[in-house]
Amino acid sequence: AMKEKNPWHKSGIVIVAVIAVVAVVALVVVFVVQNMPLPQKYKYGIVLDAGSSHTTVFIYEWPAEKDNNTGRAEQKHSCNVKPGISSYAGTPWKAGQSLRECMREAEKNIPKQRHAQTPLYLGATAGMRLLASDEVFRAVSETLQTFPFSYQGARILSGQEEGAFGWVTVNYLDDRLKQGALDLGGASTQISFVSKMFDGSESPGNSVTFRLYGNDYNLYTHSFLCYGKDQALKMALSGPPAIRDPCFHPEYVETKEYSKLYDSPCVSDRKPQGAPAFFQHTGIGNFQQCQDVVRSLFNFSQCKYSQCSLNGVYQPPLQGVFGAFSAYYYIMDFFNLTDTSIPLDTVKERIARFCATPWQQVKQQNPGIKLKYLVGYCFAGTYLLTLLTDGYNFTSETYSNIKFIHKQIKGSDAGWTLGYMLNLTNMIPAEAPNEPPLPYAGYVVIVTVIIILLVVLFLF
Ligand SMILES: Nc1ccn([C@@H]2O[C@H](COP(=O)(O)OP(=O)(O)OP(=O)(O)O)[C@@H](O)[C@H]2O)c(=O)n1
Ligand SMILES: [Ca+2]
Protein backbone atom coordinates (compact mmCIF):
# COMPACT_ATOMS: atom_id res chain seq x y z
CA ALA A 1 0.00 0.00 0.00
CA MET A 2 1.13 3.40 -0.75
CA LYS A 3 2.21 5.38 2.13
CA GLU A 4 -0.09 8.26 2.19
CA LYS A 5 1.33 11.57 3.29
CA ASN A 6 -0.68 13.04 6.05
CA PRO A 7 -1.42 16.60 4.90
CA TRP A 8 -2.49 17.41 8.44
CA HIS A 9 0.91 16.67 9.86
CA LYS A 10 2.80 19.67 8.50
CA SER A 11 -0.01 22.17 8.82
CA GLY A 12 -0.61 20.88 12.36
CA ILE A 13 2.87 21.95 13.37
CA VAL A 14 2.36 25.31 11.72
CA ILE A 15 -0.92 25.80 13.56
CA VAL A 16 0.62 24.82 16.89
CA ALA A 17 3.52 27.19 16.24
CA VAL A 18 1.21 30.08 15.33
CA ILE A 19 -0.92 29.46 18.41
CA ALA A 20 2.22 29.32 20.53
CA VAL A 21 3.52 32.59 19.13
CA VAL A 22 0.12 34.29 19.51
CA ALA A 23 -0.12 32.99 23.06
CA VAL A 24 3.33 34.27 23.93
CA VAL A 25 2.63 37.66 22.36
CA ALA A 26 -0.66 37.80 24.24
CA LEU A 27 1.16 36.87 27.42
CA VAL A 28 3.70 39.64 26.94
CA VAL A 29 1.01 42.19 26.10
CA VAL A 30 -1.11 41.25 29.12
CA PHE A 31 1.95 41.29 31.34
CA VAL A 32 3.09 44.72 30.15
CA VAL A 33 -0.39 46.26 30.34
CA GLN A 34 -1.01 44.76 33.76
CA ASN A 35 2.25 46.10 35.13
CA MET A 36 1.92 49.54 33.60
CA PRO A 37 1.64 52.22 36.26
CA LEU A 38 -1.99 53.16 36.85
CA PRO A 39 -2.94 56.72 36.01
CA GLN A 40 -1.39 58.70 38.87
CA LYS A 41 -3.52 60.17 41.59
CA TYR A 42 -1.99 63.28 43.08
CA LYS A 43 -2.18 65.21 46.29
CA TYR A 44 -1.69 68.95 46.47
CA GLY A 45 -0.51 71.66 48.81
CA ILE A 46 -0.63 75.45 48.47
CA VAL A 47 1.85 77.86 50.02
CA LEU A 48 1.58 81.64 49.78
CA ASP A 49 4.93 83.42 50.02
CA ALA A 50 3.99 86.86 51.34
CA GLY A 51 7.30 88.62 50.76
CA SER A 52 8.05 92.31 51.21
CA SER A 53 7.76 93.10 47.50
CA HIS A 54 5.31 90.47 46.21
CA THR A 55 3.04 87.56 47.11
CA THR A 56 3.49 84.33 45.16
CA VAL A 57 1.04 81.44 45.30
CA PHE A 58 2.83 78.09 44.87
CA ILE A 59 0.99 74.85 44.12
CA TYR A 60 2.86 71.63 44.88
CA GLU A 61 1.89 68.17 43.68
CA TRP A 62 2.98 64.67 44.69
CA PRO A 63 1.78 61.11 43.97
CA ALA A 64 -0.95 60.12 46.41
CA GLU A 65 -0.20 56.41 46.76
CA LYS A 66 3.55 56.60 47.31
CA ASP A 67 4.93 56.81 50.80
CA ASN A 68 6.30 60.23 51.44
CA ASN A 69 9.92 59.37 51.92
CA THR A 70 11.07 59.54 48.35
CA GLY A 71 11.28 63.25 47.68
CA ARG A 72 8.78 63.71 44.92
CA ALA A 73 6.79 66.86 45.66
CA GLU A 74 7.11 69.23 42.73
CA GLN A 75 5.94 72.71 41.92
CA LYS A 76 2.94 72.45 39.61
CA HIS A 77 2.08 76.09 39.21
CA SER A 78 2.93 79.55 40.55
CA CYS A 79 1.18 82.90 40.38
CA ASN A 80 2.67 86.23 41.39
CA VAL A 81 1.05 89.45 42.61
CA LYS A 82 2.72 92.76 43.36
CA PRO A 83 3.10 94.60 45.65
CA GLY A 84 3.45 92.66 48.89
CA ILE A 85 0.67 92.57 51.51
CA SER A 86 2.74 94.73 53.88
CA SER A 87 2.26 97.70 51.55
CA TYR A 88 -1.48 97.73 52.36
CA ALA A 89 -1.03 99.05 55.90
CA GLY A 90 -3.53 101.88 55.31
CA THR A 91 -6.08 99.73 53.44
CA PRO A 92 -5.93 96.18 54.86
CA TRP A 93 -8.98 94.91 52.92
CA LYS A 94 -7.08 95.52 49.69
CA ALA A 95 -4.39 93.11 50.87
CA GLY A 96 -7.03 90.38 50.90
CA GLN A 97 -8.45 91.42 47.53
CA SER A 98 -5.00 91.36 45.93
CA LEU A 99 -4.80 87.59 46.39
CA ARG A 100 -8.12 86.68 44.79
CA GLU A 101 -7.01 86.32 41.20
CA CYS A 102 -4.12 83.96 41.99
CA MET A 103 -6.33 81.94 44.34
CA ARG A 104 -8.88 81.49 41.57
CA GLU A 105 -6.06 80.21 39.39
CA ALA A 106 -5.22 77.74 42.16
CA GLU A 107 -8.82 76.51 42.10
CA LYS A 108 -8.48 75.80 38.39
CA ASN A 109 -5.13 74.07 38.74
CA ILE A 110 -6.19 71.56 41.39
CA PRO A 111 -8.84 68.91 40.59
CA LYS A 112 -12.15 69.73 42.32
CA GLN A 113 -12.36 66.50 44.27
CA ARG A 114 -9.02 67.34 45.92
CA HIS A 115 -9.86 70.90 46.98
CA ALA A 116 -11.18 70.11 50.45
CA GLN A 117 -8.13 68.07 51.47
CA THR A 118 -5.53 70.45 50.04
CA PRO A 119 -3.74 72.32 52.83
CA LEU A 120 -3.30 76.07 52.32
CA TYR A 121 -0.59 77.98 54.19
CA LEU A 122 0.44 81.62 54.15
CA GLY A 123 3.88 82.53 55.40
CA ALA A 124 4.93 86.17 55.61
CA THR A 125 8.54 87.29 55.79
CA ALA A 126 10.51 90.48 56.42
CA GLY A 127 7.95 92.98 55.13
CA MET A 128 5.42 91.81 57.73
CA ARG A 129 8.14 91.46 60.38
CA LEU A 130 8.70 95.19 59.96
CA LEU A 131 5.00 96.10 59.75
CA ALA A 132 3.43 93.52 62.11
CA SER A 133 -0.14 94.56 61.28
CA ASP A 134 -2.93 92.38 62.71
CA GLU A 135 -5.45 94.09 60.42
CA VAL A 136 -3.56 93.01 57.30
CA PHE A 137 -3.41 89.43 58.57
CA ARG A 138 -7.10 89.42 59.44
CA ALA A 139 -8.05 90.67 55.96
CA VAL A 140 -5.82 88.12 54.25
CA SER A 141 -7.15 85.26 56.41
CA GLU A 142 -10.75 86.22 55.66
CA THR A 143 -10.10 86.16 51.93
CA LEU A 144 -8.26 82.84 52.02
CA GLN A 145 -11.06 81.20 54.03
CA THR A 146 -13.55 81.92 51.23
CA PHE A 147 -11.71 79.41 49.01
CA PRO A 148 -12.53 75.69 49.14
CA PHE A 149 -9.14 74.56 50.46
CA SER A 150 -8.13 73.38 53.92
CA TYR A 151 -6.87 76.69 55.33
CA GLN A 152 -4.09 76.17 57.88
CA GLY A 153 -3.53 79.79 58.87
CA ALA A 154 -1.28 82.75 58.14
CA ARG A 155 1.80 83.56 60.18
CA ILE A 156 5.08 85.41 60.13
CA LEU A 157 8.08 83.13 59.72
CA SER A 158 11.06 83.79 61.94
CA GLY A 159 14.26 84.68 60.09
CA GLN A 160 15.65 81.36 61.28
CA GLU A 161 12.77 79.41 59.72
CA GLU A 162 13.06 81.38 56.49
CA GLY A 163 16.76 80.53 56.23
CA ALA A 164 16.39 76.90 57.27
CA PHE A 165 13.48 76.07 54.93
CA GLY A 166 15.35 77.71 52.04
CA TRP A 167 18.17 75.28 52.80
CA VAL A 168 15.76 72.31 52.89
CA THR A 169 14.33 73.29 49.50
CA VAL A 170 17.75 73.59 47.91
CA ASN A 171 18.77 70.19 49.26
CA TYR A 172 15.50 68.34 48.65
CA LEU A 173 15.83 65.72 45.87
CA ASP A 174 19.56 66.33 45.75
CA ASP A 175 21.16 64.08 48.35
CA ARG A 176 24.52 63.92 46.64
CA LEU A 177 26.08 66.97 48.18
CA LYS A 178 24.88 69.42 50.73
CA GLN A 179 24.65 72.96 49.45
CA GLY A 180 24.40 76.13 51.47
CA ALA A 181 21.59 78.57 50.70
CA LEU A 182 21.84 82.31 50.09
CA ASP A 183 18.57 84.27 49.84
CA LEU A 184 18.49 87.99 49.08
CA GLY A 185 14.98 89.40 49.51
CA GLY A 186 13.67 92.94 49.44
CA ALA A 187 13.68 93.46 53.20
CA SER A 188 15.91 90.72 54.65
CA THR A 189 18.67 88.37 53.59
CA GLN A 190 19.51 84.84 54.80
CA ILE A 191 22.62 82.65 54.85
CA SER A 192 22.38 78.95 55.80
CA PHE A 193 25.00 76.21 55.57
CA VAL A 194 26.51 73.18 57.27
CA SER A 195 30.02 73.66 58.63
CA LYS A 196 32.33 71.16 60.29
CA MET A 197 33.33 74.01 62.59
CA PHE A 198 29.76 74.56 63.82
CA ASP A 199 27.95 72.45 66.40
CA GLY A 200 25.64 75.18 67.68
CA SER A 201 27.41 75.61 71.01
CA GLU A 202 29.06 78.95 70.26
CA SER A 203 25.83 80.58 69.14
CA PRO A 204 22.71 78.45 69.84
CA GLY A 205 20.44 81.07 68.25
CA ASN A 206 21.97 80.31 64.85
CA SER A 207 21.51 76.55 65.07
CA VAL A 208 18.81 74.39 63.49
CA THR A 209 18.89 70.58 63.25
CA PHE A 210 17.29 68.50 60.51
CA ARG A 211 17.16 64.86 59.57
CA LEU A 212 17.35 64.60 55.79
CA TYR A 213 17.87 61.43 53.72
CA GLY A 214 19.23 59.43 56.64
CA ASN A 215 21.67 62.02 57.97
CA ASP A 216 21.40 64.52 60.83
CA TYR A 217 22.42 68.05 59.96
CA ASN A 218 23.32 70.83 62.28
CA LEU A 219 22.64 73.89 60.24
CA TYR A 220 24.05 77.37 60.76
CA THR A 221 21.52 80.01 59.71
CA HIS A 222 21.13 83.74 60.10
CA SER A 223 18.68 86.31 58.77
CA PHE A 224 19.64 89.98 58.58
CA LEU A 225 16.52 92.12 58.88
CA CYS A 226 16.75 95.39 56.91
CA TYR A 227 19.57 93.97 54.76
CA GLY A 228 17.39 92.92 51.84
CA LYS A 229 18.09 94.91 48.71
CA ASP A 230 15.27 97.48 49.04
CA GLN A 231 15.75 98.26 52.72
CA ALA A 232 19.54 98.37 52.28
CA LEU A 233 19.03 100.97 49.55
CA LYS A 234 16.93 103.04 51.94
CA MET A 235 19.68 102.85 54.52
CA ALA A 236 22.28 103.83 51.92
CA LEU A 237 20.22 106.82 50.79
CA SER A 238 19.47 108.03 54.26
CA GLY A 239 23.08 108.52 55.27
CA PRO A 240 24.44 112.01 54.87
CA PRO A 241 21.80 113.60 52.62
CA ALA A 242 22.49 111.74 49.41
CA ILE A 243 22.97 114.66 47.03
CA ARG A 244 25.72 113.20 44.87
CA ASP A 245 25.15 109.45 44.98
CA PRO A 246 27.90 107.08 43.78
CA CYS A 247 25.40 104.19 43.58
CA PHE A 248 23.41 105.86 40.78
CA HIS A 249 24.49 106.56 37.20
CA PRO A 250 25.98 109.87 36.06
CA GLU A 251 23.27 112.11 34.54
CA TYR A 252 20.65 110.55 36.82
CA VAL A 253 18.71 113.38 38.49
CA GLU A 254 15.40 112.89 40.24
CA THR A 255 13.44 114.92 42.77
CA LYS A 256 12.32 112.68 45.62
CA GLU A 257 10.12 112.94 48.67
CA TYR A 258 12.10 112.85 51.88
CA SER A 259 9.29 111.36 53.96
CA LYS A 260 9.05 108.29 51.66
CA LEU A 261 12.68 107.56 52.36
CA TYR A 262 12.08 107.29 56.10
CA ASP A 263 8.84 105.29 56.04
CA SER A 264 10.37 102.05 57.36
CA PRO A 265 11.64 101.00 60.81
CA CYS A 266 15.00 100.22 59.20
CA VAL A 267 15.69 103.93 58.71
CA SER A 268 13.11 105.85 60.78
CA ASP A 269 15.62 106.70 63.52
CA ARG A 270 18.01 108.19 60.97
CA LYS A 271 15.64 110.95 59.97
CA PRO A 272 17.41 114.26 60.45
CA GLN A 273 15.70 117.14 62.25
CA GLY A 274 14.07 119.67 59.98
CA ALA A 275 14.70 117.75 56.78
CA PRO A 276 13.26 119.35 53.64
CA ALA A 277 10.15 117.84 52.02
CA PHE A 278 11.98 117.08 48.79
CA PHE A 279 15.55 116.43 47.75
CA GLN A 280 17.45 116.20 44.48
CA HIS A 281 18.85 112.74 44.00
CA THR A 282 21.86 113.00 41.66
CA GLY A 283 24.00 110.10 40.47
CA ILE A 284 27.76 110.14 39.97
CA GLY A 285 28.25 106.42 39.22
CA ASN A 286 31.33 105.32 41.14
CA PHE A 287 31.58 101.65 42.14
CA GLN A 288 34.43 102.13 44.66
CA GLN A 289 32.63 104.94 46.48
CA CYS A 290 29.34 103.05 46.34
CA GLN A 291 31.11 100.10 47.92
CA ASP A 292 32.29 102.40 50.72
CA VAL A 293 28.69 103.53 51.29
CA VAL A 294 27.57 99.89 51.50
CA ARG A 295 30.43 99.03 53.88
CA SER A 296 29.29 101.87 56.13
CA LEU A 297 25.98 99.97 56.57
CA PHE A 298 27.91 97.03 58.04
CA ASN A 299 29.29 97.26 61.54
CA PHE A 300 32.61 95.41 61.87
CA SER A 301 33.75 96.97 65.14
CA GLN A 302 32.64 94.38 67.67
CA CYS A 303 32.52 90.57 67.69
CA LYS A 304 32.22 88.57 70.90
CA TYR A 305 32.65 85.22 69.10
CA SER A 306 35.60 83.49 67.45
CA GLN A 307 34.51 85.16 64.21
CA CYS A 308 31.67 87.23 62.82
CA SER A 309 30.13 88.21 59.51
CA LEU A 310 28.74 91.68 60.17
CA ASN A 311 27.02 93.59 62.99
CA GLY A 312 28.58 91.30 65.61
CA VAL A 313 26.76 88.22 64.25
CA TYR A 314 28.58 84.91 64.66
CA GLN A 315 29.43 83.00 61.47
CA PRO A 316 31.50 79.80 61.24
CA PRO A 317 33.97 79.40 58.33
CA LEU A 318 32.20 79.03 54.96
CA GLN A 319 32.05 75.47 53.69
CA GLY A 320 30.99 73.84 50.43
CA VAL A 321 28.96 75.15 47.53
CA PHE A 322 26.10 77.62 47.88
CA GLY A 323 22.89 78.02 45.90
CA ALA A 324 22.16 81.77 45.69
CA PHE A 325 18.59 82.63 44.69
CA SER A 326 15.88 85.35 44.61
CA ALA A 327 17.51 88.77 44.11
CA TYR A 328 20.99 87.18 43.94
CA TYR A 329 19.78 85.52 40.77
CA TYR A 330 17.75 88.45 39.36
CA ILE A 331 20.72 90.80 39.72
CA MET A 332 23.37 88.50 38.27
CA ASP A 333 21.02 87.40 35.49
CA PHE A 334 20.63 91.06 34.49
CA PHE A 335 24.42 91.45 34.34
CA ASN A 336 24.85 88.15 32.46
CA LEU A 337 27.11 87.08 35.31
CA THR A 338 25.37 83.96 36.64
CA ASP A 339 28.41 81.94 35.53
CA THR A 340 30.70 82.00 38.57
CA SER A 341 33.69 80.63 36.68
CA ILE A 342 34.07 84.29 35.65
CA PRO A 343 36.74 85.63 38.04
CA LEU A 344 35.52 87.91 40.83
CA ASP A 345 37.77 90.73 39.60
CA THR A 346 36.13 90.61 36.18
CA VAL A 347 32.70 90.67 37.83
CA LYS A 348 33.69 93.79 39.80
CA GLU A 349 35.06 95.48 36.66
CA ARG A 350 31.85 94.83 34.73
CA ILE A 351 29.63 96.20 37.48
CA ALA A 352 31.96 99.19 37.96
CA ARG A 353 31.74 99.91 34.23
CA PHE A 354 27.94 99.67 34.38
CA CYS A 355 27.78 102.11 37.31
CA ALA A 356 30.00 104.59 35.43
CA THR A 357 27.79 104.47 32.31
CA PRO A 358 25.60 107.60 31.97
CA TRP A 359 21.92 106.99 32.74
CA GLN A 360 20.68 108.00 29.27
CA GLN A 361 23.00 105.46 27.69
CA VAL A 362 21.98 102.73 30.18
CA LYS A 363 18.34 103.31 29.20
CA GLN A 364 19.16 103.11 25.49
CA GLN A 365 21.12 99.91 25.92
CA ASN A 366 18.40 98.16 27.98
CA PRO A 367 15.07 98.97 26.31
CA GLY A 368 13.38 95.79 27.57
CA ILE A 369 13.99 96.38 31.29
CA LYS A 370 11.50 98.22 33.51
CA LEU A 371 13.03 101.55 34.56
CA LYS A 372 12.26 101.04 38.24
CA TYR A 373 14.44 97.90 38.21
CA LEU A 374 17.05 99.26 35.78
CA VAL A 375 17.83 102.30 37.90
CA GLY A 376 18.63 100.08 40.88
CA TYR A 377 21.08 97.58 39.36
CA CYS A 378 24.22 99.65 40.00
CA PHE A 379 23.42 99.74 43.72
CA ALA A 380 22.12 96.16 43.69
CA GLY A 381 25.24 94.75 41.98
CA THR A 382 27.54 96.66 44.33
CA TYR A 383 25.50 95.63 47.36
CA LEU A 384 25.47 91.95 46.33
CA LEU A 385 29.27 91.82 45.90
CA THR A 386 29.98 93.76 49.08
CA LEU A 387 27.63 91.57 51.13
CA LEU A 388 29.20 88.37 49.80
CA THR A 389 32.84 89.50 50.25
CA ASP A 390 33.06 92.02 53.12
CA GLY A 391 29.95 90.61 54.83
CA TYR A 392 30.09 86.82 54.50
CA ASN A 393 33.81 86.55 53.70
CA PHE A 394 33.70 84.97 50.26
CA THR A 395 37.03 85.50 48.47
CA SER A 396 38.26 85.43 44.86
CA GLU A 397 39.05 81.75 45.50
CA THR A 398 35.70 80.76 47.06
CA TYR A 399 33.51 82.92 44.80
CA SER A 400 33.17 80.06 42.29
CA ASN A 401 31.53 77.94 45.03
CA ILE A 402 28.45 80.11 44.58
CA LYS A 403 25.85 78.94 42.05
CA PHE A 404 23.30 81.57 41.07
CA ILE A 405 20.11 79.55 40.70
CA HIS A 406 16.50 80.25 39.92
CA LYS A 407 14.86 76.84 39.60
CA GLN A 408 15.56 73.61 41.40
CA ILE A 409 15.71 70.22 39.77
CA LYS A 410 12.32 69.55 38.14
CA GLY A 411 11.43 73.21 37.94
CA SER A 412 10.52 74.14 41.52
CA ASP A 413 11.53 77.69 42.45
CA ALA A 414 14.37 77.98 44.94
CA GLY A 415 13.02 79.58 48.11
CA TRP A 416 11.65 78.69 51.55
CA THR A 417 8.12 77.67 50.50
CA LEU A 418 8.71 74.05 49.43
CA GLY A 419 10.75 73.32 52.58
CA TYR A 420 8.04 74.96 54.70
CA MET A 421 5.31 72.77 53.22
CA LEU A 422 7.39 69.57 53.45
CA ASN A 423 7.98 70.30 57.13
CA LEU A 424 4.34 71.04 57.94
CA THR A 425 3.08 67.95 56.10
CA ASN A 426 5.80 65.73 57.65
CA MET A 427 7.25 65.07 54.20
CA ILE A 428 10.86 66.01 54.81
CA PRO A 429 12.49 62.74 53.72
CA ALA A 430 14.09 61.28 56.84
CA GLU A 431 15.56 58.27 55.03
CA ALA A 432 17.27 57.81 51.68
CA PRO A 433 14.85 56.52 49.03
CA ASN A 434 14.88 52.79 48.10
CA GLU A 435 15.64 52.75 44.41
CA PRO A 436 14.22 49.74 42.46
CA PRO A 437 17.16 47.72 41.04
CA LEU A 438 16.03 48.27 37.44
CA PRO A 439 14.24 51.13 35.76
CA TYR A 440 10.78 50.03 34.56
CA ALA A 441 11.58 50.03 30.81
CA GLY A 442 14.70 47.95 31.37
CA TYR A 443 12.70 45.45 33.39
CA VAL A 444 10.10 45.02 30.58
CA VAL A 445 12.77 44.65 27.89
CA ILE A 446 14.63 41.98 29.85
CA VAL A 447 11.47 39.95 30.59
CA THR A 448 10.38 40.16 26.92
CA VAL A 449 13.76 39.12 25.55
CA ILE A 450 13.88 36.08 27.87
CA ILE A 451 10.38 34.96 26.81
CA ILE A 452 11.22 35.32 23.10
CA LEU A 453 14.40 33.33 23.65
CA LEU A 454 12.40 30.51 25.30
CA VAL A 455 9.90 30.48 22.41
CA VAL A 456 12.67 30.26 19.81
CA LEU A 457 14.27 27.36 21.71
CA PHE A 458 10.91 25.60 21.96
CA LEU A 459 10.21 25.93 18.20
CA PHE A 460 13.53 24.47 17.18
N1 LIG B 1 12.22 89.77 38.42
C1 LIG B 1 12.53 90.42 39.54
C2 LIG B 1 11.79 90.17 40.71
C3 LIG B 1 12.15 90.88 41.87
N2 LIG B 1 13.17 91.78 41.85
C4 LIG B 1 13.56 92.49 43.08
O1 LIG B 1 14.37 91.62 43.85
C5 LIG B 1 14.23 91.93 45.23
C6 LIG B 1 13.98 90.71 46.04
O2 LIG B 1 12.82 90.12 45.60
P1 LIG B 1 12.23 88.89 46.41
O3 LIG B 1 13.29 87.89 46.63
O4 LIG B 1 11.00 88.49 45.74
O5 LIG B 1 11.94 89.60 47.83
P2 LIG B 1 10.70 89.43 48.81
O6 LIG B 1 10.42 87.98 48.97
O7 LIG B 1 9.56 90.25 48.34
O8 LIG B 1 11.24 90.09 50.15
P3 LIG B 1 11.58 89.40 51.58
O9 LIG B 1 12.08 88.03 51.28
O10 LIG B 1 12.64 90.27 52.16
O11 LIG B 1 10.31 89.41 52.36
C7 LIG B 1 13.11 92.98 45.31
O12 LIG B 1 13.74 94.23 45.44
C8 LIG B 1 12.41 92.88 43.99
O13 LIG B 1 11.85 94.09 43.60
C9 LIG B 1 13.91 91.96 40.69
O14 LIG B 1 14.85 92.75 40.68
N3 LIG B 1 13.57 91.29 39.55
CA1 LIG C 1 11.53 86.27 50.02
UniProtKB/TrEMBL annotation:
One of its GO terms (molecular function) is apyrase activity. It is found in: Membrane, Caveola; Membrane. The chain crosses the membrane at residues 12-33, 440-459. Gene3D superfamilies: 3.30.420.40, Exopolyphosphatase. Domain 2. The active site is at 162 (proton acceptor). It catalyses: ADP + H2O = AMP + phosphate + H(+); GTP + H2O = GDP + phosphate + H(+); UDP + H2O = UMP + phosphate + H(+); ITP + 2 H2O = IMP + 2 phosphate + 2 H(+). The keyword Magnesium applies. It is a multi-pass membrane protein. Homodimer; disulfide-linked. Belongs to the GDA1/CD39 NTPase family. This is Ectonucleoside triphosphate diphosphohydrolase 1. It comes from Hippocampus comes.
